[in-house]
Amino acid sequence: MVRGLSAEPLTPTRRRPMKIRQLDGTGDAAYPAWFAARDAGYAHDFPGGPRWLEHELQVYYERSDAFDVALWLAEDDGAVVGAAAVAMPLKDNPTLGEVDIAVRPEARRRGVGTALLRTVEDEAVLRGRTRFMVDVEGPLGPHDSAGTRFAEKHGYTRRIVEVLRVQRPPFDLDGLARLEREADAHAADYRVLTWRDRVPDEYVAEYARMTARLSTDAPLGQLDYEQETWDAGRIRLREDRLARMRRHVWCAVAVAPDGTIAGQTAIVLAAGDDSTGLQEETIVDPRHRGHRLGLLLKIANLRTLLRDRPGVRTIWTWNADTNTYMIAVNEKLGYVPAGWLVGYQRDV
Ligand SMILES: CC(C)(COP(=O)(O)OP(=O)(O)OC[C@H]1O[C@@H](n2cnc3c(N)ncnc32)[C@H](O)[C@@H]1OP(=O)(O)O)[C@@H](O)C(=O)NCCC(=O)NCCS
């Protein structure tokens, strides 16, 4: 090696210390790097699991009338190695902070996650939040991962366990039609309607009532969560956000003889991307249970989704392990277990 040819005196390069920096919302120029670090962190612990697309999460973490949000990144030696967010509901649950933290695999066990979590919690406490929740997910197997160990190390306790299930092609539409015919006999008084994206004006108030109910009717385990406040305006706000995420929503509802909504279900799928469908928010009003509406709604909705998007590759759904009725419906539809979610909470 030839030495001494440099015209400049050689200065030792200094490693820059780890730095936590708050983003100026999801429009910040650093958002793509924030997203890349978060995505790398989650993908490492659950390869093949359901994933957010960059532009979807950008809208999800926008501030709105319904949520205040703050985002931070961790930089180590100039590279973004970790990402954190806290979402703080404004219309209900006024002391709750929903925490999201991920660290790139190559930067772990150096205190980055801890530094991000402290920053998130300190800031959220200043904004009146004293109840923190975080979800950790993993593939089939024991409910144990870097995320569960990290959460437990920081005083979070397990409040709910959910099973993540997935449905993939081929979809047995003939088999589903047979199930539908059997179930129809139990639901003769109800009318099933389907639509995409926008709740028709005549049902929006009812849809809001059922959406609020869903927030606490689905099993919550030991999570301390208040019923959400929904009205027509908030439904429209969500539709607007989903449109800006470039996501479509397929929806089926059962209308009771008195014109109220007896049950509803929805599947979300990105426009132009068939990889990740999300089966969301199925609820049957307790006054209308026992008529197989859960099964009928899900079959009707899947049929319209497949008519519009026959190439869909996965549909994911989460159920509390105690929600035996919904799990039985999902298994009839062809969902198979694919992973787990543990919901953690810490009160400060
Ligand atoms: C969870 C996660 C954010 C931790 O990031 P990190 O920077 O490695 O965390 P820290 O270095 O601050 O770890 C703090 C403590 O958590 C515990 N911990 C973290 N990872 C662990 C692991 N793989 N095994 C056992 N304990 C672990 C340890 O007690 C650790 O302290 P120690 O290193 O002195 O033993 C990171 O593993 C990750 O991104 N996981 C995937 C996303 C996720 O699950 N997010 C939800 C987090 S609640």
Automatic annotation (TrEMBL):
The keyword Transferase applies. It comes from the Bacteria. InterPro entries: Acyl_CoA_acyltransferase, Bact_Acetyltransf, GNAT_dom. SUPFAM superfamilies: Acyl-CoA N-acyltransferases (Nat) (SSF55729). Gene3D superfamilies: 3.40.630.30. Residues 18-182 form the N-acetyltransferase domain. It holds the Pfam family Acetyltransf_1. The keyword Acyltransferase applies. Keywords: Acyltransferase, Transferase. One of its GO terms (molecular function) is acyltransferase activity, transferring groups other than amino-acyl groups. This is GNAT family N-acetyltransferase. It comes from Jiangella ureilytica. The lineage of its organism: Bacteria, Bacillati, Actinomycetota, Actinomycetes, Jiangellales.
